[in-house]
């Protein structure tokens, strides 16, 4: 099941108390948290420093068990980075909890303020990128050519550009970018090393919290896999990402982006920084196309994908999608690599 699905608080509590460490959890300890994103509900377990993370739908189109298995693996794998919540349990799908849930550690922190917190986000990403690879990548994806895999994802989502209500100029600009990506225009030489590290994928600043020590924590690991770190650096700093979360809602200058990348480079081994540098612009373009095509889909199917969203959040999402699909905005973003 990959469609949006509600859950029963009673079913959630019944599943939680089956976990040995939560057997004594009272029903009134469940505190629903405000909906921030489109894919998960969150419930705080008061007094336990834990959060129940309940999928609303699978953004990856996975069945409930596969999606839960991947997320559980993602939280376990990323925990050694020291910048992600700990994994505390898996609640299987069942009646009243159709997509199951995960239980993860609660991170006490605030929403990032940009550009000031971008170096902290860079260091969190660096900690994820420099983790030693596992002996076995499964169940997380690990495409041997992450750039080709990213382009393939863009190709799958490109149909939404035709279905979204883009004006002629915006459609022509998108077509030009797609053509350039397909021909490898601006890509580094073929012999350029291609690193493969753990990557967060959905690393827009709204998916981070800043704790009382100024440390950034990455909290949404649904899409974590093994890929190219330059894509994370792009996604964290593109206009389409820094304006995504209404609580962040910021625009970075080129100097801000340069400082962010420099902070990341200082926090990873020198050879990794050197290998990533030639890919920064090509992966920035492809990652932007990935987001842009997803937002084109949102303009067509948003109400179906995530029903029941608060009107304020839905209005922001719709306004943001309209903004980043405007021809003038597309032109602005393209200046990063043209």
From TrEMBL:
Sorted UniProt keywords: Transferase
Ranges of residues in domain Aminoglycoside phosphotransferase: 44-252
Gene Ontology MF terms: transferase activity
SUPFAM superfamilies, sorted: Protein kinase-like (PK-like)
Protein name: Aminoglycoside phosphotransferase
Species assigned in the record: Azospirillum humicireducens
């Amino acid at each position: 099941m990959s469609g949006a699905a509600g859950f029963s608080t009673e079913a959630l509590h019944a599943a939680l108390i089956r976990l040995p460490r939560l057997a004594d959890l009272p029903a009134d300890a469940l505190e629903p948290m405000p909906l921030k994103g489109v894919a998960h509900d969150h419930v705080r377990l008061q007094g336990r420093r834990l959060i129940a993370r309940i999928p609303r739908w699978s953004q990856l189109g996975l069945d409930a068990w596969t999606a839960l298995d991947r997320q559980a693996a993602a939280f376990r794998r990323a925990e050694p980075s020291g910048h992600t919540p700990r994994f505390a349990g898996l609640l299987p799908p069942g009646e009243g909890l159709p997509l199951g849930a995960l239980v993860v550690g609660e991170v006490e922190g605030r929403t990032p303020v940009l550009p000031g917190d971008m170096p902290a986000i860079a260091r969190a990403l660096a900690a994820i990128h420099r983790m030693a690879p596992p002996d076995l990548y499964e169940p997380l994806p690990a495409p041997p050519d992450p750039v080709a895999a990213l382009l393939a994802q863009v190709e799958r989502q490109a149909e939404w550009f035709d279905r979204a209500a883009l004006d002629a100029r915006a459609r022509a600009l998108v077509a030009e970018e797609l053509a350039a990506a397909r021909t490898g225009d601006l890509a580094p030489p073929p012999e350029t090393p291609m690193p493969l590290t753990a990557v967060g994928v959905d690393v827009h600043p709204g998916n981070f919290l800043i704790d009382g020590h100024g440390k950034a924590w990455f909290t949404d690991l649904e899409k974590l896999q093994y890929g190219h770190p330059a894509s994370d650096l792009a996604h964290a700093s593109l206009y389409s990402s820094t304006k995504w979360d209404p609580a962040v809602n910021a625009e970075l200058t080129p100097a801000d982006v340069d400082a962010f990348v420099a902070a990341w480079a200082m926090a990873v081994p020198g050879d990794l920084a050197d290998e990533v540098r030639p890919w920064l612009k090509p992966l920035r373009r492809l990652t932007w196309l990935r987001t842009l095509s997803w937002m084109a889909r949102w303009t067509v199917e948003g109400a179906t994908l995530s029903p029941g969203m608060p009107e304020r959040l839905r209005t922001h999402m719709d306004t943001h999608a309209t903004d980043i699909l405007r021809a003038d905005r597309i032109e602005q973003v393209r200046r990063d690599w043209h």
